[in-house]
Amino acid sequence: MGFVVGASALALASALSTGPSDAKVAPRDAAVAALSDAPFDPGESAAYGPRAFLYGGNEFLPAPGRAPSSAAAIETGPAEPRERELTATVMPGDTLGQILDRNEIPRQDAQDAIAALKRVFDPRRLTPGQAVALTVTADETGVISLSRLMIEAEPGRRSIAARQDGGKFAADEEHDPITVEPMVFAGTIQSSLFAAGEKTGMPPAALQQLIRLFSYDVDFQRDIRQGDSFEVMVDHHSLPDGTLVGVGEIDYAALTLSGVTLRLYRFEDRTGLVDYYNEKGQSVRKALLRTPVDGARISSGFGMRNHPVLGFSKMHKGVDFATPIGTPVYAAGDGTVEKAGPWSSYGNYLRIRHTGTHATAYGHLSGYARGIHAGSRVRQGQIVAYSGNTGRTTGPHLHYEVLVSGQQMNPLKIKMPSGRKLAGEELRQFGKLRDGMIRSYASLSGNHRVAEIPAAGPAKTR
Known about the structure:
The strands form 4 sheets. Strands 11, 14, 15, 16, 17, 18, 19, 20, 21 and 22 form a 10-stranded antiparallel β-sheet that branches. Strands 1-2-3-4-5 form a 5-stranded antiparallel β-sheet. By secondary structure, the protein is an alpha+beta fold. It is 21% helix and 32% strand.
């Protein structure tokens, strides 16, 4: 018995000695030790995590509520409240409450901080890998409280909940300055416009804009040929360290198909309406889009075909676009939803009335965008549904129809009515803006700021 007691005493003395130890530290003891008066080693903290035991002192601090030994109290005297910075990484499935609980934050502090933070940031938008920075304080008795919580909501924007003098938490945000400068991209198409744009490093948002702008006049399945080319000038939004945080609207775009160049310019008219116009001041906007999805491949055209499910020849009264399930589907034009729900072999079906004679229909959908139902108003380019594999299909795709006076017409060949044409003073103002854009683009590309395929990166204007 004496031998056992003696061995235990030796083990305890070893665990409390000044040298390294493999003794396990309870999570709460570790949190208090991290807030002790011992020297703080950022490198060691990063190695062991936010609740690690930080060596560097020769005493073991008790957990909250456990009185220190009288000898320790005599040696050190009353301790001043100490602050420490902790950083937690959001893991899959984490909630903000769980993160605060893991880091020993008192429940009331956690609830108050989250309630305040909701004014500037939705905690449900946490994503794995995000950092949650915590400032915690321990008083002389070892009681921990939360002083500040900060989340990098997005690059250059931080959402904060901080304790005020009265003890309550208040929310605020910090924003890094954003620089806006034009960036140009250009490339030669080998297979598709989408692939060519990706190779230049064009941001996906700008690439989607480009495809949508030309979708009024271009059949991307049949009109694109190897050797065709494109040019784009778009505003680049970046942080002081160069991090891209977004792109603005395209200012100028050109697409050369089989030697014929189509140019588009962004222009704001006297009423404040922004639209895109060709070189003559004619709006490129048509009543209906020919392609209601981005970058999709046509898998079945309009006309007679051997039906893949029924096994006999049957008229195909629409165009099928091969798309992964969940691909956004855009309203082909302004209008009112006539039907949104299951319908015959179409599966989940959507029909939009645009004019007294024109309507569009979308079949085999996986679902509908929020707020889409019979009677709802939609705008051209608005996401109204998502492609799927419902109804009579052999694979995921979108079935698209244009109906004129109730009859299905070929969406790729039907003549679409043109938009407005500028005149008078507006046309003169447009001419000045058009010529200025051409000079700006030429200047940037002439200074080797345009990326030509197969160059690896984007064409930067810096």
